[in-house]
Amino acid sequence: MKYTLYHMGHCPYCKKVIKHINQLKIDVSYKDLDIHEKLRTELKNGGGKVQVPCLLVEKKGQSAVWMYESQEIINYLS
Predict the structure, then answer these.
(1) Antiparallel, parallel or unpaired: β 54-58 and 29-32
(2) Residue numbers in the chain where pLDDT is lower than 50
(3) What is the pLDDT of residue 37?
(4) Is the distance from CB of 21 to CB of 28 less than 8 angstroms?
(5) Which CATH number fits the domain that encloses residue 69?
(6) Nearest alpha-carbon partner for 33 in 20, 49, 19
(7) What is the span of the domain harbouring residue 62?
(8) Around 37, how many Cα atoms within 13 Å sit in the side-chain half-sphere?
């Protein structure tokens, strides 16, 4: 399973999710929309909207899942 978190540095909800990920010591790739403008298009095309935080969950042989709500992400990872 592969996790990718789309985030922005000023977003308090992103910070909350990142803190939780660090506490759980989960291997997650991070994509910062503040640094790479093209990631906005990637997020829009993949998940349907430009909203952070967004956790992309990729499981082999299954469709990708895009989660946008911080509490949903935290609950899922717990």
Answers:
(1) unpaired
(2) none
(3) 83
(4) yes
(5) 3.40.30.10
(6) 49
(7) 2-77
(8) 0
Task: Specify the number of domains making up the chain.
Answer: 1
How far apart are the C-alpha atoms of 7 and 58, rounded to whole Å? 17
Q: Nearest Cα to 55, choosing from 23, 10, 26?
A: 26
- Strand-pairing partners, residue 32, are 7
User: What's the pTM?
Assistant: 0.93
Q: Is 49 exposed, middle or buried (0-12, 13-18, 19+ CB in 10 A)?
A: exposed
Do strands 2-7 and 29-32 pair parallel, antiparallel, or not at all (unpaired)? parallel
Instruction: State the first-to-last Cα distance of the chain, in angstroms, to the nearest integer.
Output: 15
Task: Give the neighbor-by-neighbor strand order of the sheet with 54-58.
Answer: 29-32, 2-7, 54-58, 65-67
- Amino acid, single-letter form, for residue 10: H
In the block, residue with structure tokens 């929309």: 33
Residue written as tokens 């759980």?
Answer: 24
In terms of Cα–Cα distance, which of 56, 65, 71, 58 is closest to 17?
Answer: 71
